[in-house]
Amino acid sequence: MEWTGVLWMNPPYGRELRKWMAKAHEAARHGATVVCLIPARTDTKWFQGYCVAGEIRFIKGRLRFSNHEHSAPFPSAIVVFRPQFEGGPKVVFVKQDWGVRREPCTGASSAAKGAGSVASTQGKRGSAEAA
């Protein structure tokens, strides 16, 4: 499945993450905009190989999702891959000021809004392996 348009990606955070980031990077090279919520693992090959080609927004603090007592056990980042992105990596630090949303989100995702990006979801699901 080809990724087109503007997409939101919250991939599995295991060993397969590298494949998802490769797919997002490649989709941007073919015209898609992909907004990725990922663990900020700056010491990994996949982060150095793919994320530095996009816009990196480090989230201050640890994410906490509604009704969960504990925060994520790692720092997070939002990486935006855009078509025709030129120049070196763009790095921004973002406050978690979008808060906990109690109502369903529509249109642009709350994380992308908080990061200053505009993203819409197209309801597409696929795998990083899909062509």
What strand line-up does the widest sheet have? 1-2-4-3-5
Radius of gyration: 14 Å
The string of secondary-structure elements, in order, is: EHEHEEEH
- Helical stretch tally: 3
Cα separation of the termini = 5 Å
Low-pLDDT parts are: 99-127
> What's the overall geometry?
globular
User: How much of the sequence is in beta strands?
Assistant: 15-25%
Fraction of helical residues: 10-25%
Q: Tell me how many strands there are.
A: 5
Number of spatially distinct domains: 1
* Biggest beta-sheet profile: 5 strands, mixed
Average predicted confidence as pLDDT: 75
Structural class: alpha/beta
How would you describe this protein?
The protein has a five-stranded mixed sheet with strand order 1-2-4-3-5. It has one domain. The chain has three helices and five strands; from the N terminus they run βαβαβββα. With 131 residues, the protein is α/β, with parallel strands linked by helices. It is 18% helix and 21% strand.
Strand and helix layout:
Blueprint: E1 6-9, H1 17-29, E2 33-39, H2 45-50, E3 55-59, E4 76-81, E5 90-94, H3 110-114
Parallel strand pairs: 1-2, 3-5
Antiparallel strand pairs: 2-4, 3-4
